[in-house]
Design a protein that fits this description.
Oligomer: single chain
Shape: globular
Radius of gyration: 18 Å
Number of helices: 6
Structural class: mainly alpha
Strand content: under 5%
Order of helices and strands: HHHHHH
Number of domains: 2
Helix content: 40-55%
Largest sheet: none
Length: 126
């Protein structure tokens, strides 16, 4: 998957439970390495569209009884990055995960103070 703005690959984490569920789904669906895990409704040789993904996401949000207008693909991405930052304070890690070329972009994305960001960044050896 490529980032829409930068065109660079998107990094993401798959938890152990998700890996196990995916493995079960792949086996039961008899999928091969060339097959898409999330196939388009249009054809099995295509992946789902952004619109289909959005529809699925908002279906889950509705089933959870959450307010639909408070959630989006982007808000979930930002929340994950923010939670990792709060736990680790490793700006460089967040920068890599988000695919940002500049640390300043990551700082703005997270909404943290520049002085705090630079202070934390200076304490991290890469």
């Amino acid at each position: 998957m490529l980032q829409q703005k930068a065109g660079s690959p998107v990094q993401f984490e798959i938890t152990k439970g998700t890996r196990e569920a995916d493995a079960t789904f792949i086996k039961l669906s008899n999928l091969h390495s060339k097959d898409f895990l999330f196939r388009s409704r249009v054809g099995t040789d295509q992946h789902i569209s952004t619109r289909q993904y959005n529809h699925i996401l908002h279906g889950w949000i509705e089933k959870l009884g959450l307010k639909d207008s408070l959630y989006s693909k982007h808000s979930l991405r930002r929340t994950k990055a923010h939670l990792i930052y709060k736990k680790t304070k490793y700006l460089r890690v967040i920068q890599l995960l988000l695919g940002h070329k500049k640390l300043e972009s990551t700082v703005r994305y997270l909404g943290i103070e520049v002085d705090d960001a630079l202070e934390i960044s200076e304490t991290i050896e890469v």
